[in-house]
Amino acid sequence: MKKKLLLTSLLVAGAGFAIASDYFFKMALTPFNKKPDSKKLSGKDSLYRNKVWFRDFPKEKWSLETKSGLTLFAQYLNHDSDKTAILLHGFMSDSDSMGGFAKMFYDFGYNVLLPDARAQGRSAGKYIGYGWVEKEDIRNWIRQVIAKNGQDSKIIVMGQSMGGANTMMVSGMKLPSQVKAFIEDCGYSSVKEEIMYQAGNLCNLNKIARMPLVEAVSGINKVKNGFFLGQASSVKQLKKNTRPFLFIHGGKDHFVPTKMVYQNYAATDAPKEIWIAPLAGHALSYPMYKKEYQKTVKAFLDKYKL
User: Fold this and answer.
1) pLDDT tens, residue by residue, 52-70
2) The pTM is what?
3) Is the CB of residue 124 less than 8 Å from the CB of residue 63?
4) What is the separation of C-alpha 97 from the centre of its chain, rounded to a whole number of angstroms?
């Protein structure tokens, strides 16, 4: 009788763990039960004028097909320039959320391409790749920019949050010579570390409970999304980067902890700079320090004649 009760308890516990793992996978790596950022603009937003300008600016609609048959979409702002900034949005957002950044780069003389990452915005897909899967998509967008603007194109890639991690992961790939530099804002050091951190930060799980859950989610992700969470490392990709890199992070970021930017910064031996917005929380460095942010980005671009 005791053996049956023990077996039953183990089966119930195992089933419960499997359900919890699947639910956590859905919450972390799919658009399940989530809505994109609101499109409503607020006059209290320090980037309000930028975002209104972006909303009203005429945009070209671009698309590409992935090897797996997904159709991805992007918006393009034409400045008739040989310089293009590719701007990458954050988790469960879309290209419209980068409107404030688009105005900044347009004012700097850049064309601007804003992709919707797979499974987000207007792009197809079931699973979010946290930059590891999307890095190949970004390389294909880079090729489209070169096809449109010619071999003399100068391209920079800039991303925020998950888009920042995507930027770092792209930096370690073999890329066309037209890609000149990278800028990342509040990206994480690795997908596994970020999900492990969020399991504690958002779900209040201690480290002992977190570890098997995240490992299970990693296994599910390998089957469904093609990679283990530990593979998706910004740090490892940055070690292969050879192009100038600007790292930005909020000094009070408790979503992607500020300590991660120092890990990322240390990982690359390429020319690099770092700027910490002292009191900014996650993804708030630009709206809280608008003038300093623009000055920092412009100085970086000018330094490398971009």
Assistant:
1) 999 999 999 999 999 999 9
2) 0.92
3) no
4) 12
